[in-house]
Amino acid sequence: MKFIVSSSALLKQLQSINGVIASNPVVPILENFLFEINDGTLTITASDLETSMITEMHVEAKENGRIAAPARILLDTLKNLPDQPVTFTIDEETYTIELSSANGRYKLSGENATDFPRVPVVKSNNSIEVPSNLLARAINKTIFAVSTDELRPAMTGIFVQLNDNNITFVATDGHRLLRYRRFDVPTGNSASIIIPRKAFTLLKATLPSEPTTVRVEFNTSNAFFSFENIRMVCRLIDERYPDYENVIPAQNPNRLVIDRYDLLSSIKRISIYSNKTTHQVRLRIAGSELHVSAEDLDFSNEANERLSCQYDGEDMEIGFNARFLIEMLNNIDSDEISLELSTPNRAGLLMPTSNDESENILMLVMPVMLNNYV
Amino acid sequence: MNPPIRKIIHIDMDAFFASVEQRDNPELRGKPVAVGGSRARGVVAAASYEARKYGVFSAMASKIAQQKCPNLIFVKPRFEVYSAVSRQIREIFYSYTDLVEPLSLDEAYLDVTENKIGMPSASIIAKEIKARILAETNLTASAGVSFNKFLAKIASDLNKPNGFTLITPDKAVDLVSSLAIEKFHGIGKVTAAKMQRLGISTGADLRKRSEAELVRNFGKVGHYYYRIARAEDERLVQPHRLRKSVGSERTFEEDLTAEADMLERLQFLAQEVAHDLNRLQTTAKTVTLKLKYFDFVQQTRSKTLVTHLNAADAIFTVARDLLRTPQLPQYPVRLLGISVSNLLYAHDLAVNYQLTLDF
């Protein structure tokens, strides 16, 4: 089999799906791209068994055929070639691949395409269409709180819940919980699935910057995403997601409203002085003043700042992990935020004070218990 | 100019865990109590004075303790209570000085050369601290006062429980001379045995040896032995010092070649390390295996786990895996060591922790 393709066009396609390939895959064949030619269309697949990405492009080819080509060498070769048509000549008996360019010839050994794992095909009755920018935003707003604790697999993915009038994305690591809800996507059904973090990370990286429509289909074991010439298939996390609505406090009576940037930059400075294990910062709120402080007894470091705020509630003192607050504040767009608290040992709710009508963002964070013996 | 004579206090709670249990449960008072697991593989973490009379000591296997003292009552440890008491006590310390060096939950050095109440007598401060500990926690402590850490620690041990001992500079050298070598802090069982072989059984014997000889026999630590034999110890009281790692190692009389022999030694080392972890109320995340071959070439292999561990079994399992990966030692081994690091202290856990959502 033989085909001719532009080196830069091929490189672009390979790079868009290359992220799937694990650095040390379970089976060595997964270090390869699967190349399949069918009537002048080259279909390229990369997989780590859990997630697979497929892209298609047009090439000049007279015959059909398949080969598994080593990803690393191929990418490095194409990256270092000036843009030009390259010819791939594949010997399907010996699995030898020869690239010829204007610069010279490169021979690499591929593997038998039939050894490449079969990618599940769409057999689904659930499907929706989602604008790509909405999907990217939902992933961005939640993915940083996804747990890495393999002992609780349900939490290592993003929970996607389709309801009659909204679509909800939830992520939690047990210390904080993020809920991002959209009201502007007609879902037409109700269902819920857990998408592994890696799949969403890859999807986020691959979604084009210009808006397009992503078709999402799923059944009980897999989800399929397709847009433009790219498809992604991922195995769902087959676990029960924690009952997250239950941990969101219905009413936190103490409400602080403050400029997001002021609070963020204050916490960034104060956290430099916090304990290196707990990253604890202390918020003391009285009247219309917020006192942010931290200390690290091990090094006799301490820092204090006062910020003005609007506060409606009882005076209180509460500790939080500064890194959590920084990440969360960084992920809010509005100029002003509200922090709703109840007691120093219960969840706080962080939210933008103004939401776009089409969306709702809720961030929940558990406190760090204050050590009051200093 | 000579620096002023320092005033160091060493405070050591008496049979701490066991006393807390006896305090909180009247039925245990006056009875032999061991804090720790009573299960077949458990270890005594602390023994009440009544139990010590039967020869029950901390770190003893629960099974042996039970044999020595059939009436022994085993109580499950309640570390959150111990660390709360420990905080209470530290608060008392901090009202006199900020130079407090906690060695564990129940022991600390204080430098009161300059103190917050402007009291020139360290003895009066030490007695006041003891009285306040008793008043505020209903527990007794022993105090040692002297002009360096080494002597203060020896002093607190001389008159236990509820003791108070002052070692003044003019008595220090005589006292150290009369002390059996096993009583020196910093000289463990193995070193003591080696000293006995060298004919050193008291402080006076130790003082007769030259510094060069001690360094030749014991390495760098020989300098320290030379000085403590003269009642000299320049180590400062270091506030907020917590140990970053815990370890144990042994050099063998004969180099080991068989895996079974090495595993047997590792099992023992793992128990020692587990015991120290228990004593410090901490758990570890990283286990390091140290190997020294017959030709003195040294190698370490380590592994960091997802969870914290403190049990001898678990430490042994990791050490065994390290011994076998990438492969068993190919040359005779003269030294094996296990150390653990990445420590998480119960103390930190009890006062300063990230709350978790209750799913």
Automatic annotation (TrEMBL), chain A:
Residues covered by the DNA polymerase III beta sliding clamp C-terminal domain: 246-363
GO molecular function, one term: DNA-directed DNA polymerase activity
GO BP annotations, alphabetical order: DNA strand elongation involved in DNA replication
A Pfam family it matches: DNA_pol3_beta
Highest taxon in the source lineage: Bacteria
Entry-linked InterPro entries: DNA_clamp_sf, DNA_polIII_beta, DNA_polIII_beta_C, DNA_polIII_beta_cen, DNA_polIII_beta_N
Domain DNA polymerase III beta sliding clamp N-terminal: from-to ranges: 1-119
Start and end residues of each DNA polymerase III beta sliding clamp central domain: 129-243
Keyword Transferase: yes
Assembly description: Forms a ring-shaped head-to-tail homodimer around DNA.
UniProt function note: Confers DNA tethering and processivity to DNA polymerases and other proteins. Acts as a clamp, forming a ring around DNA (a reaction catalyzed by the clamp-loading complex) which diffuses in an ATP-independent manner freely and bidirectionally along dsDNA. Initially characterized for its ability to contact the catalytic subunit of DNA polymerase III (Pol III), a complex, multichain enzyme responsible for most of the replicative synthesis in bacteria; Pol III exhibits 3'-5' exonuclease proofreading activity.
Family indicated by similarity: Belongs to the beta sliding clamp family.
Protein name according to UniProt: Beta sliding clamp
